[in-house]
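Entry for the shared binder. Reason: the reviewer on the internal report wants the predicted structure included alongside the sequence.
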Amino acid sequence: MRFKKLRDQVLVITGASSGIGLTTAEMAVARGARVVMAARSGPELARAADRLNRERGRECALAVAIDVSDPNAAERIAERAQDAFGGIDTWINNAGVSVYGRIVDVPLADMRRVFETNFWGTVNGCRVALGVLRERGGVIINVGSVVSDFAVPLQGIYSASKHAVKGFTDALRMEVEAAGWPIAVTLVKPGPIDTPYTEHARNYMEHEAKHQPPVYSPEEVAHAILRCAERPVRDVVVGGGSRMMTAIATMAPRLADLYMERTAFAAQQRSDRPANDDDSLFEPSRESRRRGNYPGRVMRRSTYTRAVLSDVGRAAPLVAIGALIAASVAARK
């Protein structure tokens, strides 16, 4: 399948009022794309879209205030995109919420809310995107997380929701390919990213939440998303440190468990600050920021992710398969 250049695309981005979503929208319009920005934060979202339109000197951004957990929200996004820009080329399911705390301390209502947004919001978006893209072709990009490959204590329900997103995305991809539809399905799995994620998450810990390093910039995730909008891959991890952790969890899961048990409880809390009580689990935040308040070093680029998304990196799996076949043939001879 051949996909459009970014400058010729219309992108839907959910969770676009802050963090990864806002960064992706800004970078997309800077490269000539038009974006439909969806989120719960109506006024903040509208201001962000107006700013992008003023900066670019054209109508390139549209704000749609919706809650992705609403089963009908995705339909409204598609209708607004059609009316404003004539269609959709790439649909990015990025909206997400989270909770920090031991599983025994997190109320069931909070757990259900995480799944309603992270999992069912993705499902709702994908179902509408399939209907829109089935004839014209395009890309569906689901923003998951590296915690779909290994779980993190104190983020148990968030980890579970991202495991569900990964399973759904993998099954969807196979069904789309088997049906012969001209749609690529990509899963982008960021590691810890310096966005307001930790501030927006509900917190049942003693201290304010923080990321466990290494931490990467939201621009690196946005780069991966937009690269996949033009040249999709099956899935990609954002962050070499996170990719290393997934490898350890796959090859030595018990070792990964022990490492997390000994490091993650302290590493995910700021001992100098009490837990904040201002979260966006049920109500939208009233701010529009790309960056968070991570106190340590933030990695601006991931050499690993850039390599995987390069032309050489894309060819590596084919080279490996070819070498395996050649070795098998040689062994038989």
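Summary line for the report: Residues 11 and 35 are 5 Å apart (CA to CA).
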